[in-house]
Amino acid sequence: MEYIYGVISVIGIEIIATVGLSVFTGFTGLFSLGHAAFMAIGAYTAAILTYFYNVPFILALLAGMLMSALVSFVIGFPTLRAKLRGDYFAIATLGFGEAIRVILENLSITQGARGLPGISHFTTLPVVAIFSVIVVWMTRNFILSKFGRNAIAVREDAVAAEMAGIDIFRVRMLSLVYSAACGGLAGGLFAHYLNFIQPAMFTSILSTQLTSAVVAGGMGSLTGPIIAISFFIAVPEVLRVANMWRLVAYGLILVLIMIYRPSGIMGYHELSFASFKNLFNRKAANQSAGGRRM
Amino acid sequence: MFLQTLITGLSIGGIYALMAVGYSLVFSILNFSNFAHGTIIMLGAYIGYFLISSFKLGFPFSFIGAIVGAALLALINVRLAYSPLINRKAPPLYLMITAMGVSIFLENMVYVTVGSHFYSFPEIFKQSTIKFFGSDISPLDLFALIFSFIAIFALHLFLTRTKMGTAIRAASYDMTVASLNGVNMNKLIGIVFILAGAFGGLAGVFLGVKYMVYPTMGWITNKAYIAAVIGGLGSLPGAVIGGVILGVLETFVSVYVSSVIRDVFSFSLVILFLVILPAGLLGKYLEEKV
């Protein structure tokens, strides 16, 4: 039972990071290859605060979020201001992720590559559950707000959106900051769940996992990536496969999704009670219409 | 010391240029960054290594084998993974995601099948050094430097003197008009990838001999991508200039400043370049098309 709670906690933490990334990649249409860096910043900030300075857990988490959001300006401000092409931006984030790791490995307060052991275990299942529900709910509101609609407009056609009076830089920057803050929160929770962090945990493997979940789940859907990341974590746990096969599968999933269903599993749809109702209604409608169509 | 650093930098720059050419060729035609190119280079190095150490083919034949093998892999890659997307005119972002998927897939496939061992090429060049104006230069650096530039010059001749080369240059300006004038796009894309793959195989063997052969050696190719961006993606002379500049600067930074910050330096350099000069030194800057 303990083990299952653990898996569910990890899923909850990763959902927070994935939902953040889905705002940036799925809804704003910019690709990031370095989102693990934001998790790392959040994790280290929160862990250092509780470990060395005995700051209360909630405050430390908030500080981690704030730190991630601030650092996201460092990478976001120059690159988004210059309106880089999508793939240029991706390589910039890749470099950013690597740079953050090198910095963490060489600072003295992070204890370098050895990592920080003995962080207090504050992240219990209820804590994770509460935070992930709050973040998912906030993200839903964010997407339905004016900024969310602007973000979707920018994703669909940046030039047209700009002509309609949307400040592209502001929209992109805001969704980067939002996703960085989510990543920071997830990182802080992660550090206090595992009780140990080291820079090697936040490599491109983690970034790949998050990005694959967003692409596979559907760029333009919130529930899609949530389902995808849950599968990505739960299935290897159940099958007990080696870490590397998991990555082979991520690569294959990315290619197959792009070839056969570029909009992802959920497409632009959301999974909700209403959609279940629609599904049944459609089934019923199909059955009644089936005879004619044959 | 200075001259030695310069020559080492130039030879690394030559290898970067070889790899950057592959990125630029594909980008000039299809307008997307082929992140799978690094994995093709890594596989080329593996092919070269196994031909020379397991099959005892000797250096020249293993060298050719690696080039042919990498070219074929690049062709398979484009036919299986990219063609369905190109045919339905998918946006470049989708092609880029696919390329990343291919790269993650192949890299980890090597991990689980071949393993994460580091292989080193058997000694091909004697460890002795050549004295050159009082500094020691390894024969490998010199060979890589000269051979890289011969290969790139040959590519230049191919692109400017042959019919197919002219078609490739035409397609890099406008694919639609080129195909209206009777260029077989499918064949042309295949040839571009074969060329990129062949150069990747060449670079892979040099990298393998210089450093070692291991699954994540494709990481080095991110630098080659940076070189291509600095020179201007899509421009061949740009790729060469970018490669040389990056190779020399990086070597100087790691010798005179610190080797820890070498990679951070390269990535900061590219961000700086992208912000100030998004088109690179010689490239044409294309906004993502509407």
Automatic annotation (TrEMBL), chain B:
- Tell me which GO cellular component terms the UniProt record holds: plasma membrane
Q: Name the domain of life.
A: Bacteria
Tell me the compartments it is located in: Cell membrane
Membrane topology term: Multi-pass membrane protein
Q: Which GO terms describe its molecular function?
A: L-isoleucine transmembrane transporter activity; L-leucine transmembrane transporter activity; L-phenylalanine transmembrane transporter activity; L-valine transmembrane transporter activity
Give me the segments passing through the membrane: 6-27, 34-52, 58-81, 93-119, 139-159, 188-213, 225-252, 264-286
**Pfam families referenced in this protein's UniProt entry, alphabetically:** BPD_transp_2 (PF02653)
Question: Which one GO biological process term can you cite for this protein?
Answer: D-alanine transmembrane transport
The UniProt keyword set, sorted, is:
Amino-acid transport, Cell inner membrane, Cell membrane, Membrane, Transmembrane, Transmembrane helix, Transport
Give the similarity note: Belongs to the binding-protein-dependent transport system permease family. LivHM subfamily.
Descriptive protein name: Branched-chain amino acid ABC transporter permease
